[in-house]
Every structure is written in structure tokens, then in C-alpha cells.
Design brief:
Helix content: 25-40%
Structural class: alpha+beta
Distance between the termini: 47 Å
Shape: globular
Number of helices: 5
Strand order of the largest sheet: 1-2-3-4-5-6
Number of strands: 6
Length: 169
Amino acid sequence: MNHQFIDTELDGFKLRFATEADIPLILYFIKELAAYEVMLDEVTANEEVLYESLFQRKMAEVVIGEYQDKPVSFALFFHNFSTFLGRPGIYLEDLYVMPEMRGKGIGEIMLAFLAKLTLERNCGRLEWWCLDWNEPSVQFYKQMGAVPMNEWTVYRLADQALEELAKKF
């Protein structure tokens, strides 16, 4: 497979955009992250859904991090839009680094790459959610200058509630 790698400052660590052949790997990383977050039972994604969403409909993008030619991390992101800025942003849905690779700077490199991509695409913001109990990640993000949006509460419609509201139209 012909991957276009992006070199990083960490010796042996390179980034690349995912291809269709990476779908099983992407699903594996999603499940690993969900297990870490104690939410594995909520994962309903499968390879077919990921193929349609990522490569047919192009609803999101994935960057894979490889250390010494072995996939060790991924970031899945998509564009959102700020009406206040009048510009798109990048929303980071998931960032995962394999446990044995943490502490080497891989997460920071991946976020730095996404920050650069945000600027290159003339986006106004790079945003993500973090679980409140995940103190190591909270501290990691704050060290990079990220600011929690404490005055905002996330609301979600899903499953039956989503279906019921949709019926009203």
C-alpha cells in the first residue's frame, strides 16, 4: 500500500491519513478508546458503517500515527462551523495513543499536527470534549494551552428521543 507519510520530530514516528484498508485498524482503536473510557458497550460502529461514513460520504477524516512502522495512535476529526467567526473549525472526536506508547510525546505531536491543519484550512478553532474524570488528559490539554468551556453544557438527542422529535416534523 502506498501511504504518504508525514515526518515528525520524534524519531521513528510518522503520521499519515487513513485509507480504506485502515478500516479494521480504525475500528480497533475506537474500541480500545471506548474500553479505556468504560464505554465499550456503547460502540455500535462496524467496518461497513465506517467505510460509508469515512470514505464514501467523507463525513470525517482519520490520521494514523505509526512508530517504527507500527500503528500506535489515531485521531478522528471533522469540520464544524462557527457562526460567530463565520468560519469552519475542526472538531476532534477521538484521539487515542496505545498505553505502552504514552509519555513519548505522541499525543502532543498529533494535536500539533491538527492545530497546523486547522490553520492551513483557515479554520478558526480546534475543539474536543474530554471526560471530567480523565485527569491525566485534562492536565495534558491544559499544559498545551487548551481552555475548558465550563460555562457550556453538552446536550444530546439519540435513540428514541431523536426519533420522537423527528416525527414532529
